[in-house]
Specification:
By secondary structure, the protein is mainly α. It has four helices and no strands.
Length: about 130
């Protein structure tokens, strides 16, 4: 009973932390790759969104580790920026059309929902959902 639930919660936590760290790393890498380039306003907006979701990912990881009550709000904010950035990249960075923006947003949404699920499960009380 209880030991299995605690181990499952730990698994959710580790998975959420890993994915948040991975996407934060990729966001930093992508932003640094754009540094020094002559960027359009849209491209600068994408880079700014990347930095924001990196900051929110770090805050979310700290909140998950501390089991802080406000972590769910941070995760929602991270997810919103992550999805928005994924929708904008095909248009502003790659010069593609609206169809790929929708596809990019859908992929971002699927990833964000997975991370929200893992994060929220990791934040559940030891006794399970209330």
């Amino acid at each position: 009973g209880r030991a299995i639930r605690m181990n499952a919660r730990t698994g959710y936590l580790v998975a959420a932390l890993f994915l948040l760290a991975l996407f934060a790393f990729l966001g930093v890498q992508s932003s640094l790759a754009a540094a020094g380039a002559d960027l359009t306003t849209g491209q600068r907006a994408v880079v700014m969104l990347q930095w924001w979701y990196v900051v929110l990912a770090v805050l979310a990881m700290a909140g998950l580790l501390a089991r802080h009550a406000g972590t769910r709000l941070v995760l929602f904010a991270w997810a919103a920026i992550f999805v928005t950035r994924n929708a904008l990249v095909p248009v502003y960075r790659d010069g593609k059309g609206l169809g790929l923006a929708v596809a990019g947003g859908a992929v971002g949404l699927a990833i964000a929902l997975g991370i929200l699920y893992l994060g929220f499960r990791a934040l559940e009380p030891k006794d399970g959902p209330t």
